[in-house]
């Protein structure tokens, strides 16, 4: 059994002090009752729960604290956030954008992003946030699939990420540019508008329209192993799980200063970097700066952060600086640290206990689950390396796997693994509010994600005799790098757009900091030489089109392994790259 790291007893005043009792007494109906709902019984709206209800009762409390790159600090109260988000909702109406239409954001972490996100939800439109480090191809693919009619972005990001692909986006009617209006095109020119001008002209009062809990609210794209990205559809009812899980897993309350370092372009940065802390009335810290160890420690100390949610990659980068860097700062306010996005090394948990004064509490969830499902809790002992145990209201199981690595289906049903410590596919019993309601325009793919009342996660885990879950890997080829999912197909497709490339295959390669790096293998067309210049050209080509999800390594291989049906065997490439057993080769094509 792994060493158990105990949180500091002084900090055990957790909001969920007894896990077993919480599991016995929890109900989603009671969790739903904690939401205020729209006035006059008009339904449930995420923006109302996150902003307007607090503006009524504690409007002077700080909702957002924005830390600028230049060191300036801007506080936005709940009352001010209500006015700003109401202006945005009214601005959408002025543009003729109607309920249910999709509004995309491609923005850095600035105030405009949070106003646009919450204003979109107020208006009854669907929010789809994009990661600002995406290249033009991923941006265009998601805007096409989501039929985005509005894009909110900066002039610089528009020129670099959107203009090269604008002609292929027929549904995009409005581009709202942030910042100085003089820095972008004129208002109305080819559908451009200055966000500042729109907000100035809009009313700061807005009555949120009736919102059914099952109305679509969020569209998050996640990568698959083959084909296009998957658009996971979430509804306003998801806010019930955002709020409840923030209490149970993140120990979050109204008196906290909360910092989530995830970009809102990823589901963590939306569910817990916008919605959950605001539903609790907490102060949400927003740092416009990039990762820098000294800056991050200074933020934690100077802002008296109490709850910190970050990625294992970031923690591993801090670990490289040892404990001395942390010791130079007063981190006494920090009472709970949690991580998500990729497996958390046991070494990092132990380092955190020493350097930060409290161990990191790992947790697990997916874009599709919408909220945290499994966690190490504030009042519980930690087993370093473990995902933890299911949250109250969540039933998890380990299912037997078939030859394809996925849950074995027998007569339409599935079988649970009996023996502790045996690998199987993680499954969750359907029934929590933030479970996705579909993959956009991919009904069959959505249906295949369920069997016998279970949601099949595609993650391989084992459960020990005491009920703790341990991550073993993915059942498919999706790559987890720096907390983000990267679909091999999307990267391979871009590489094959280069005239030199005949075939491409992409794998995840273990990396001590990022978890995995994206590595590409390519076969060249006749007439091309595999020299250093071409190697650098291919990496640069991919980087310009894909941005942050581009491969970091590339190898020219004239003999990529295929099945007899012609499919490239990524698993065999990975086994050879890492010196692992090659497994069953019966389907491999032989020359």
Structure description:
Residues 490-567 form the AMP-binding enzyme C-terminal domain. Its EC number is 6.2.1.1. One of its GO terms (molecular function) is acetate-CoA ligase activity. The chain is an alpha/beta fold and 591 residues long. The protein has three domains: 9-161 and 171-195 and 209-218 and 229-360, ANL, N-terminal domain (Rossmann fold); 395-476, Luciferase, domain 3, CATH 2.30.38; 479-578, 2-Layer Sandwich (GMP Synthetase, Chain A, domain 3). It has 18 helices and 29 strands. The longest helix has 17 residues, at 78-94. The chain is globular, with a radius of gyration of 24 Å.
Could you provide a short overview of the structure?
With 591 residues, the protein is α/β, with parallel strands linked by helices. It contains 18 helices and 29 strands. A nine-stranded mixed beta sheet has the order 2-1-11-10-12-13-14-15-16. It has a five-stranded parallel beta sheet with strand order 4-3-5-6-7, with helices on both faces.
List the helices and strands and how they pair.
Layout (H helix, E strand, L loop, with lengths): L18 H7 L2 H6 L12 H13 L3 E6 L5 E5 H17 L7 E5 L4 H12 L3 E5 L5 H11 L3 E4 L1 H8 L11 E4 L14 E3 H7 L14 E7 L7 E6 L2 H11 L8 E4 L6 H13 L3 E5 L5 H10 L4 E4 L1 H8 L4 H4 L8 E4 L6 H10 L4 E5 L9 E2 L13 E2 L5 E4 L9 E2 L2 E2 L9 E6 L8 E2 L3 H5 L2 E2 L2 E10 L5 E6 L4 E3 L2 E3 L1 H8 L5 E11 L3 E10 L7 H15 L6 E4 L13 H9 L13
Helix pairs in contact: 3-4, 3-5, 3-10, 4-5, 4-8, 9-10
EC number: 6.2.1.1
Organism: Actinomycetospora lemnae
Keywords: Acetylation, ATP-binding, Ligase, Nucleotide-binding
